[in-house]
Amino acid sequence: MKKATILGLAIALVFGIAGCAIGTDEEFTETQAAAPTSSETSMTSLDDITIYFPESYVVYTGVDDTGDWEFTRHYRHCFYELSYSYPHDIDSVSLEAYNEWYRSRPYEGIERTEPLVFSFIMHFDVSFEDFERVTIKSYMFLLECESNMLSEGNEPPNPYLLYTFNLERINDYYSLDPARNASARQWLEEWLHTNEPYESYSAFMSANPQ
């Protein structure tokens, strides 16, 4: 992956450096960063799309929570979910293998220690290139459907963060705690100035032997 491309995609993160205001039952805070419209993305190749990661998403808690949670969650929806697009569109992962892996996951009624999508990336050693491609494709689909991109239910996974394989910072990023979220965004912007996302989990392990 070329550094110029990574830094170009990382520009979208600048919107979040000032901090992340998380909505509650009483108040929702929306970002001023504007995502591209569907007309701007139609007839555009995947290579030309920049994913925008707003500084805040509309987060629902308490009685307004749209998830069927059996615990008090500490992270946004994206932490707990994995779009079917990933096992469906990544050729290196068969649906049979995915279904077997998913059924082996811990009971859903407990808080996770890492994002489900992060577990998926590591277990199947999904390449950054494949993951980024599917993420952009899914992002464009939501834009074409005129989905509310400020809703946490439509938040795309952040490939540039996930492929640092820094679990502490990844969990901070998806946290409902504004201070943790802002700290992770700042860290990622600085990290991308001198690093590129790892090509895969195996590449990360080779570069960082235990």
Structure, explained:
- This protein is mostly helical.
- 30% of the residues are buried.
- It is globular and about 35 Å long.
- It has one domain.
- α8 crosses α9.
- It is built from ten helices and no strands.
Structural class: mainly alpha
Beta-strand content estimate: under 5%
Q: What's the SSE pattern?
A: HHHHHHHHHH
- Integer count of domains: 1
Q: Roughly what percent helix? A: 40-55%
Oligomer: single chain
Overall pLDDT confidence:
77
Rg: 17 Å
Shape annotation: globular
Separation of the first and last Cα atoms: 25 Å
Low-confidence stretches: 1-43
- Biggest beta sheet summary: none
Number of strands: 0
What is the tally of helical segments?
A: 10
Blueprint (SSEs and pairs):
Layout: H1 3-10, H2 38-41, H3 85-89, H4 95-103, H5 116-124, H6 128-144, H7 159-162, H8 167-173, H9 178-194, H10 201-207
Helix pairs in contact: 8-9
Name a few traits of the molecule:
mainly alpha, 210 residues, disordered N terminus, 41% helix, 10 helices
Task: Provide a quick synopsis of the model.
This protein has 210 residues and is an all-alpha fold. The chain has 10 helices and no strands.
